[in-house]
Specification:
12 helices; 39 strands
Length: 831
């Protein structure tokens, strides 16, 4: 029973079911009938409706309207009427260029509105269209084509229908706005947009969702486009007042995927200007640059930030005048890294602003621009760098101004300066760095650079010559293209120096400044051991290649000035030593030119006398230098001279065999190896000499004569009259012209070649009279030069190198020396 009761509750009698079906069928039938009737009406009235639409459009616009095809339907759009226009153009009457050219325009209009005074259009969709607004060089504009006719009568105005548009859709619509006179051009392609409008009083409230490919905003076209080739996706919120003011309420916008908040105002009538404000967080520096016009982008492109920046931007500019808008930018970042042509910095935190109208009385442009950075903290390598302000001015020709003070270790300084000429290894330094000049990576920027390094207990290595300077104390300053060191103290091993330097024209390695840098150096030392500088004659080590950054171009200029420029050195030393050579009261003016160096003028005290000399040392290769020496020796102790110069590379006559005081002038060329040793076989030149109070002591070749003559005479200490002559020196061989030698033991005449390379061949002619008559203590100093060519009957001796390298003296019984000499002369004459 219970089940039957439940079933009875939901039971619908059959007659009610039949009635419900009939009602639904009737409604559907009426709907179909209505659609058919309306379709018949629309079809029968199509020409009238299209004529009405065409008339309305021509009433609205002044341009030349052309519609290739039109269609009206109701089936897909009921209860609205669907209107489709194909290949629509609206052109101006002068150039007949399309202001609008659309492949398709579709609209949905209220059917009943066609019968009343208000035509409600639900939506309009424009596809594959181009809108081109232009003003030519004569001021003609095609903007009038959408303006209404002005000759409406009162009755016509009373009978006009009000057109209400609620929704607008755009697909693949290109918009170009250009003004030749004001040099403005704006262009972009709307790929997709949906616009909803609502009229409240005199204001239109508009929401505008768009996906736009912006070709660019040419506020001043010769300067290029802003926002060039940028994808913009936005949800705009506009309010348009019929008084001519368009307000942009805060809207969310993406530019190349970067989110912005943008608001602003366009006054199209009273002020004819616009103002836009935009803000974004975490934008990459490279992305921010793409928003700017090309010239500004290029100039700021020499600076790079690796981390994002928070930015606020405002633009204010005219709508009806030519010129750039006034741009103001505020930015802030933390823990960023900056690279510039001048300096590279890490862990940077700062705030800043940009303006392209620093002087309000001058129009906005790059030459009137400035970037100010404040509260700047950073690391330069491992060095902490802080400054209150950095300024970049005039982006047409940008200059940068900054000033830093810091303290660091020499090792930190080495890693930062990246000098290829010097290694800074130990000690501490205070660094001051200021710059006010062009933002370009070129040594010419040295004109505006001021830098000062105060070094305390530092150690530096001059890399190309591997010379270590220790206990360095003093300041090195670079200012206005000059380098200065005042009373800089340092040691090279046991040698102590006080150095003053002034270098000029350091920027001569700039591509814009051809020529050489010049360094003037004054050096004083109480005692110099030249052994510490023998690497001057060694292999020149290749400079370390270090990756340049920051002030790398500046350091390169200093490196080049030291390595390739001209360095003038004025050396004063109380004492100078090199091996056995000892000198005092040394004064020398030296010039270092690239791989060459020379002594322009030098004077010193040595071997109880004085030297005045000049020299030029040329590096032939890494292992060999060639020196050209001009010297004037006065009152030189021959014994000390031979000892100082290691007997000039030979062992026959040594300092132990000699006595005497020499005056000489010489001009010589000689080779020097990479240990600073003279190479005897490379010696060439002439020696003009005079030796007084000369003596030969225990000279073995002379003692060997006693095998033949003078067995009863003392040849252990032979004193000589003045020896005076000229020696020709070729490849280390000394060519002795025939000269008399008058001594306390013997009178003889000598000629020939003395060689350090086993080519010694000297004729010693002893007159017979000298065998029988020993010169007196006073007579031996009187030389009878009349007998030099024909001394009479003589004994000929010949001195030549033996197998052991020592000079051997033997009898020349058959006068072979002179015969060989004549033969060689004949052969030479034939040549």
């Amino acid at each position: 029973m219970e089940e039957e009761k439940k079933k009875s509750r939901f039971h619908v009698p059959g007659k009610w079911r039949r009635r419900f079906v009939r009602v639904v069928a009737v409604i559907l039938g009426l709907y179909v009938l209505l659609l058919v009737s309306l379709s018949i009406y629309v079809s029968s009235s199509k020409e009238r409706l299209l004529g009405f639409l065409n008339a309305k459009m021509k009433e609205t616009i002044l341009g030349e309207l052309k519609i290739n095809n039109a269609d009206i339907t109701i089936w897909r759009t009921f209860p609205d009427i669907g209107i489709t226009l194909e290949n629509v153009t609206v052109s101006d009457s002068f150039y007949h260029r399309p202001f609008i050219k659309a492949e398709q325009i579709t609209a949905r209009a209220g059917f009943m509105g066609l019968l009343g005074n208000k035509l409600k259009i639900g939506s309009v969709t424009v596809k594959n269209a181009v809108l081109h607004s232009f003003t030519d060089v004569n001021g003609y504009s095609n903007n009038y084509v959408l303006m209404p006719h002005k000759k409406d009568t009162v009755s016509t105005a009373r009978n006009k229908k009000l057109i209400v548009l609620r929704n607008f859709n755009l697909e693949n619509v290109t918009i170009v706005l250009e003004d030749v006179i004001r040099k403005k051009r704006y262009a972009g392609r709307i790929d997709d947009a949906n616009i909803d409008m609502r009229l409240t009083g005199s204001k239109y409230h508009i929401t505008f969702d768009e996906d736009l490919m912006l070709r660019g905003l040419g506020f001043n076209l010769p300067q290029g486009y802003w926002l060039e080739n940028q994808r913009i996706q936005a949800k705009w919120k506009f309010v348009y007042d019929t008084s001519g003011v368009l307000t942009i309420n805060k809207s969310k916008v993406k530019i190349q995927g970067q989110p912005f908040l943008i608001k602003g105002k366009f006054d199209f009538k009273r002020k004819s200007q616009f103002h836009i404000e935009a803000s974004t967080e975490g934008i990459k520096y490279a992305s921010a640059l793409t928003i700017l016009k090309p010239k500004t982008r290029t100039k700021l492109g020499s600076i790079n930030l690796t981390e994002p920046v928070d930015v606020n931007v405002s633009l204010t500019g005219p709508l009806s005048k030519k010129g750039d808008p006034a741009v103001k930018v505020n930015f802030v970042t933390t823990e960023n890294n900056i690279t510039t042509p001048v300096v590279n910095l890490t862990s940077c935190s700062f705030k800043g602003n940009y303006s392209n109208q620093v002087n309000p009385s001058i129009a906005p442009n790059d030459s009137n621009s400035q970037i100010i950075v404040t509260g700047f903290t950073s690391n330069w390598g491992q060095i902490k760098m802080n400054t209150p302000t950095i300024a970049i001015t005039n982006l047409s020709n940008p200059t940068i101004q900054f000033e830093f003070n810091t303290a660091c270790t020499m090792a930190q300084l080495d890693e930062t300066l990246l000098s290829e000429t010097f290694d800074f290894t130990e000690g501490s330094a205070k660094l001051y760095l200021a710059y006010n000049g062009s933002l370009i990576p070129d040594p010419s920027l040295l004109n505006q650079l001021n830098a000062k390094i105060e070094i305390e207990n530092g150690t530096m290595v001059y890399v190309p010559r591997n010379i270590t300077f220790s206990s360095c104390n003093g300041a090195i300053a670079i200012a206005g293209n000059t380098l200065t060191m005042n009373n800089f103290k340092c040691n090279v091993n046991a040698s102590q120096f006080t150095v003053n330097i002034k270098g000029s024209n350091l920027n001569r390695y700039s591509k814009k400044e051809a020529g050489k840098a010049s360094m003037n150096c004054s050096v004083y030392s109480p005692s110099v051991d030249l052994n510490d500088f023998k690497t001057l004659f060694g292999n020149k080590d290749a400079a370390k290649t270090k990756k340049k950054g920051g002030v790398g171009s500046v350091i390169t200029s200093v490196d080049d000035a030291l390595e390739n420029g001209d360095m003038h050195v004025n050396l004063k030393a109380g004492k100078v030593a090199l091996h056995n050579f000892k000198a005092t009261n040394v004064n020398a003016n030296m010039l270092f030119e690239n791989n060459d160096w020379g002594i322009q003028k030098a004077s010193l005290q040595h071997a109880d006398g004085s030297f005045n000399l000049s020299a030029k040392v040329h590096q032939v290769n890494n292992n060999y230098h060639q020196a050209v020496v001009n010297a004037d020796l006065s009152h030189i102790n021959v014994k000390k001279l031979f000892y100082a110069f290691d007997n000039f590379g030979q062992t026959t006559i040594t300092s132990g065999n000699l006595q005497g005081i020499m005056n000489a002038k010489t001009n010589l060329t000689v080779g020097i190896n990479n240990s600073g040793k003279l190479l005897a076989n490379t010696l060439n030149g002439k020696l003009y000499f005079s030796i007084k109070n000369a003596a030969l002591i225990n000279f073995k070749p002379l003692l060997n004569i006693q095998q033949y003559v003078f067995k009863n005479r003392d040849l252990n200490n032979v004193q000589f009259a003045e020896l005076k002559d000229t020696f020709d020196i070729k490849n280390g061989d000394i060519y002795i012209r025939r000269m008399p030698v008058q001594s306390s033991a013997i009178t003889m005449y000598i000629e020939g070649v003395y060689s350090t390379a086993n080519r010694t061949d000297i004729l010693i002619q002893v007159p017979m009279s000298s065998l029988t008559n020993k010169p007196g203590d006073k007579d031996f100093k009187k030389i009878d030069r009349a007998k030099m060519d024909d001394p009479g009957r003589s004994i000929n001796l010949r001195a030549r190198d033996g197998d052991d390298g020592q000079v051997k003296i033997s009898l020349d019984l058959f006068n072979k020396y002179k015969k060989e000499k004549r033969r060689k002369q004949r052969e030479k004459d034939k040549e």
